[in-house]
């Protein structure tokens, strides 16, 4: 009988450790997925900025300036 209680206590400790490990693993997966989502939204804003820059360059080129002048102007130059 005493051996049975010792075995159940050992198993109980392992269950707690495994539960903690699973919980930590789940938490780290959640953090990773949130980080990937943040990166994806960052790429969306870069894509929008790129489209606006390209439109600016084409508009300036249509006004008679060279490509290098258009890029300089759209980057904030004079």
Fold and architecture overview:
- The protein has helices at residues 2-62, 67-74.
- With 78 residues, it is mainly α.
- It has one domain (2-74).
- Helix 1 (2-62) packs across helix 2.
- The longest helix has 61 residues, at 2-62.
- The chain starts with a helix and ends with a helix.
Question: Helices and strands in order, then pairings?
Answer:
Blueprint: H1 2-62, H2 67-74
Helix pairs in contact: 1-2
Features:
78 residues, mainly alpha, 0% strand, rod-shaped
Would you kindly provide a brief summary of this structure?
With 78 residues, the protein is an all-alpha fold.
- How much is the average pLDDT? 86
Please report the number of helical segments: 2
**Quantity of strands, as a count:** 0
Give the fraction of residues assigned to helices. Answer: over 70%
Strand content: under 5%
Uncertain ranges:
none
The biggest sheet amounts to:
none
| Class based on secondary structure composition and strand pairing | mainly alpha
Number of domains: 1
Shape: rod-shaped
Distance between the termini: 89 Å
In angstroms, what is the radius of gyration?
30 Å
Helix and strand element order: HH
């Amino acid at each position: 009988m005493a051996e049975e209680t010792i075995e159940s206590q050992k198993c109980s400790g392992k269950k707690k450790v495994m539960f903690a490990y699973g919980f930590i693993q789940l938490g780290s997966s959640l953090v990773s997925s949130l980080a990937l989502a943040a990166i994806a939204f960052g790429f969306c804003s870069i894509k929008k900025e790129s489209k606006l820059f390209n439109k600016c360059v084409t508009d300036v080129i249509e006004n008679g300036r060279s490509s290098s002048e258009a890029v300089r102007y759209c980057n904030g130059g004079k």
